[in-house]
UniProtKB/TrEMBL annotation:
It comes from Pontixanthobacter aquaemixtae. Residues 24-57, 59-369 form the Pyruvate phosphate dikinase AMP/ATP-binding domain. GO terms for molecular function: ATP binding; kinase activity; metal ion binding; pyruvate, phosphate dikinase activity. PROSITE patterns: PEP_ENZYMES_PHOS_SITE. This is Pyruvate, phosphate dikinase. Mg(2+) binds at E759, D783. It catalyses: pyruvate + phosphate + ATP = phosphoenolpyruvate + AMP + diphosphate + H(+). Substrate binds at R575, R631, E759, G780, T781, N782, D783. Belongs to the PEP-utilizing enzyme family. Its EC number is 2.7.9.1. Transmembrane segments: none annotated. Residues 436-517 form the PEP-utilising enzyme mobile domain. Its cofactor is Mg(2+). Residues 532-883 form the PEP-utilising enzyme C-terminal domain.
Length: 885
């Protein structure tokens, strides 16, 4: 099996591994595929991702086999182009780029113009007939290579360039002449000599291997790691390396470079969308240094922009490009994100990939493409990332609210966001961790800002187009973003910004509308999202194709109503303890806990009963006719205890006990390890009157709703933290007794079920016998993960990050189910439960019930339903459909 694949020129593409993204990465696989279907791709080769994994694991560097393969592949490029690397008369120049299985925009390294040295630069000047171009390319190469491969601070080069321009009285780079660049090259070389104590490498082979190593190493850079963590990309994948003959978009006015999407990545509209720059190299477009121009005439006119679009300025190359767009969309049956270069009038394709898109665009494209018969309904369901729906479910700005518009930039990533202005990424992260909503405002963003972008509610940049780093990353993260708002100027010394004639400080409030590009002072009112349109269509398709039911975890009528709007088909978990925290009833709860004997507890419980009944009644009314799983009290009692003297004092006044007495009782209730302490059904066993009161409240409420509305809810009374059959037997008898008593009093009865959570390993192991007592199981995978791994769910955030970084866990096991470990317990309990009771109802109500990967596992195990928090209900509906396709 080779570890190097060539493309372009005479290549046969016979080995299917070459077009497998896991082997050659997304970029490498698609370059091969484009070349194979006859598109103009500069020749090159791809080193496989396995080589990266090997390189990063070992200390031995590159194997002889790899060196031989690369030498052969280089020959392929040289023969196809008719130039050779390091040849002084007619040098070949190459680009060296990363390319992982999935795209990680800007996270890894790239080196362009490799192959230049003091001799080959002269050859390039001669063959191109353009001395300025040759020296400009050389200085770009030295800067990029020194930064990426040699680790020299790129600021030093920027500074030298600024000084050179100042000396000449120039404002733009374009004013620099050949000699100016040549002088700068000498300057750059002395910077390298001073910084490293050795000269810039002249040996082109050393340059090439240095660049390959740097690209491999960049897989493990801090920013790549952060990106992987945020996007759930395993650290073990590695990146491929693509080495490709350079084509030049910076060879004068018949040359250009650009990026394009076959449909609008922000809205999904079926219109070519892109940006280009005449006489520029690829990085110029994405880096946001020059403001790129519109690709099509229509887009330019819509934006009222002056500089000519590519369609108008280079009609021939544009025509060719448009034909390529059509071909690629048909070939990949998806929206493509394309990089191209025009060298002296000739079009070259540098990259194509399925383009990143906002959730709105993903939905629209999926529904549209199904309408165009490009894909079918099932494929459309699979096209939308369930997690991305999250972006659509959140509020947008109320069109009727007043907007104090400061400026309008580019609508780079939709959604509305308000927050306080923060001017750097670290501070954005700090404040967000402290619970503040922030808007990150930068001149432009770079990959180093990614943690701050993630922490922020929204991002505003002064420079950069729709394909700038900020725009691409924000869209991927689902953060609203306005880019290229050129009226914004930032002063880091006074930590303030000026927008037009308005002065704002860090800490002031700003609102962004990523759908229109508007930047507004203060906070603007928002409205709830639209559930119809493409969203409604896709959800309808999903519902048609899914097997599992989707319920919600909710305990307030407002949440229940919202969840029903989102399509919830019942309640999977109502955590009753949340009702105990209510400010009006906490005192009665505290009296109950601190009572020393049953009589005292019963007095306090009598006060709570009508309140609980009213809670359940409201919920049952909203969820009429649907199953409602109500879980009896779970958390350790000490969670309800008073804190601080004032609370003790207040309690002393109503309870009649002295503060000292209350404090002593509280001390008695202290637990060293409350998560494994006196909680769950252990409370019900020791203080049955608590569960009795709750059961009574449930049944009284259900009977009342049934009588009043004629539509009875179906209560499923759930006992938490069961470890043994006997616990459930005792508590089930209590619940049944209470039900019968209530039905007799009310003169009516209703259907109900008693079941249990499976959230302890022993319960999973003993599920066969527990099922004798349980009509349903609901997997409480939060506690089941905690108790199986022996990792505290409340403390794990402090130490789990290195676990995911080092690949010990692919993902945080409290977010995505540890299918291999905890999953075994779930599977076993499901099987054993069903063996005892064929019609046992099985569901999941841990947080994993809203995680698409975990939902896939639930489908495999054959659970009847998943339950998720209200905003996750649509995500779960779509994920359930995807997992049953
Ligand atoms: C669980 O443990 O998974 C669960 C749903 O219960 P809680 O999160 O309330 O402990
Ligand atoms: Mg639990």
């Amino acid at each position: 099996m080779t570890s190097v694949y060539t493309f372009g020129g005479k290549t046969d593409y016979a080995d299917p591994r070459q077009k497998d993204k896991t082997v050659t990465g997304g970029k490498g696989a698609n370059l091969a595929e484009m070349a194979e279907i006859g598109l103009p791709v500069p020749p090159g080769f791809t080193i496989t991702t396995d080589e990266c994994v090997k390189y990063l694991a070992g200390e031995t560097g590159f194997s002889d086999a790899l060196r031989d393969n690369v030498a052969g592949a280089l020959k392929h490029i040289e023969e196809t182009v008719g130039k050779s690397l390091g040849n002084n008369d007619d040098p070949l120049l190459v680009s060296v780029r990363s390319g992982a299985r999935v795209s990680m925009p800007g996270m890894m390294d790239t080196v362009l113009n490799l192959g230049l040295n003091d001799a080959t630069v002269q050859g390039l000047a001669k063959t191109s007939g353009d001395e300025r171009f040759a020296w400009d390319s050389y200085r770009r190469f030295i800067q990029m290579y020194s930064d990426v491969v040699l680790g020299v601070d790129h600021g030093l080069f920027e500074e030298a360039l600024e000084i050179a321009k100042e000396d000449k009285g120039f404002y733009n780079d374009t004013e620099m002449e050949a000699e100016d660049w040549q002088t700068l090259v000498a300057e750059y070389q002395s910077i390298v000599q001073d910084e490293l104590g050795k000269p810039f490498p002249q040996d082109v082979s050393e340059q090439l291997w240095g660049a390959i190593a740097a690209v491999f190493d960049s897989w493990d850079s801090d920013r790549a790691k952060v990106y992987r963590r945020l996007n759930d990309i395993p650290g073990g994948w590695g990146t491929a390396v693509n080495v490709q003959a350079m084509v030049f978009g910076n060879m004068g006015d018949t040359s250009a470079t650009g990026v394009a999407f076959t449909r609008d990545p922000a809205t999904g509209e079926k219109a070519y969308y892109g940006e280009w720059l005449v006489n520029a190299q690829g990085e110029d477009v994405v880096a946001g240094i020059r403001t790129p121009q519109y690709l099509t005439k229509a887009a330019r006119e819509k934006a009222n922009a002056k500089p000519m679009s590519m369609e108008e300025a280079m009609p021939e190359a544009y025509g060719e490009l448009a034909a390529v767009f059509e071909l690629l969309e048909k070939h990949y049956r998806d929206m493509q994100d394309i990089e191209f270069t025009v060298q002296d009038g000739k079009l070259w394709m540098l990259q194509t990939r399925s383009g990143k898109r906002t959730a709105k665009a993903a939905l629209k494209m999926a529904v549209d493409m199904a309408g165009e018969n490009l894909i079918d309904e099932k494929e459309a369901i699979l096209r939308v990332d369930p997690m991305a729906l999250d972006q659509l479910l959140h509020p947008t700005l109320d069109p009727k609210a007043h907007r104090d518009i400061l400026t309008t930039g580019l609508p780079a990533s939709p959604g509305a966001a308000s927050g306080t202005i923060v001017l750097d990424a670290d501070k954005a992260e700090q404040l967000s961790n402290a619970g503040e909503k922030v808007i990150l405002v930068r001149v432009e963003t770079s990959p180093e800002d990614i943690h701050g972008m993630h922490a922020a509610q929204g991002i505003l940049t002064a420079r950069g187009g729709m394909t700038s780093h900020a725009a691409v990353v924000a869209r991927g993260m689902g953060r609203p973003c306005v880019s290229g708002a050129s009226a914004v100027s930032i002063d880091m010394t006074s930590r303030s910004l000026r927008i037009g004639n308005r002065e704002l400080k860090e800490g002031d409030t700003l609102t962004l509308d990523g759908a229109t590009g508007q930047v507004m002072a203060g906070e603007v009112r928002t409205i709830e999202p639209e559930m119809a349109g493409d969203f409604g269509t896709l959800m309808e398709w999903a519902d048609k194709h899914r097997r599992m039911r989707v319920r919600t975890n909710a305990e307030t009528p407002a949440d229940c109503r919202m969840a029903r709007q989102f399509g919830a088909e019942g309640i999977g978990l109502c955590r009753t303890e949340h009702m105990f925290f209510d400010a009006n009833r906490i005192t009665a709860v505290r009296e109950m806990i601190l009572a020393e004997a049953e009589a005292g507890r019963r007095d306090a419980l009598a006060k709570l009963l009508p309140e609980q009944r009213a809670d359940f009644k409201e919920i049952f009314e909203v969820m009429a006719g649907l199953p409602c799983t109500i879980r009896l009290l779970d958390p350790p009692l000490h969670e309800f205890l008073p804190h601080g003297d004032a609370e003790f004092q207040a309690l002393a006044e109503v309870s009649g006990f002295g503060v000292d007495h209350l404090k002593r009782r509280a001390g008695e209730l202290h637990e060293f390890n409350p998560m494994l302490g006196h909680r769950g059904c252990r409370l019900g066993i020791t203080y049955p009157e608590i569960y009795e009161m709750q059961a009574r409240a449930i049944f009284e409420a259900a009977c009342e709703v049934a009588k009043e509305s004629g539509e009875a809810p179906i209560p499923e009374v759930m006992v938490p933290l069961v470890a043994t059959k006997r616990e459930l037997e005792i508590l089930r008898a209590l619940i049944d007794r209470t039900a019968q008593a209530v039905f007799a009093e009310q003169g009516t009865d209703i259907d109900y079920l008693v079941g249990t959570m499976i959230e302890l390993p022993r319960a999973a192991l003993m599920a066969g016998e527990i099922a004798d007592e349980a009509r349903f199981f609901s997997f409480g995978t939060n506690d089941l993960t905690q108790t199986t791994l022996g990792v505290s769910r409340d403390d794990s955030a402090r130490f789990l990050a290195p676990y995911t970084d080092q690949g010990i866990f692919d993902r945080d096991p409290f977010v995505s189910l540890d299918v291999e470990g905890v999953g075994q317990l779930v599977e076993m309990a499901a099987e054993r439960g069903r063996a005892t009771r064929g019609d046992i109802k099985l569901g999941i109500c841990g947080e994993h019930g809203g995680d698409p990967a975990s939902i896939g596992f639930c489908e495999k195990v054959g659970l009847d339903y998943v339950s998720a928090s209200p905003y996750r209900v649509p995500i779960a509906r779509l994920a359930a459909a995807q997992s049953s396709l």
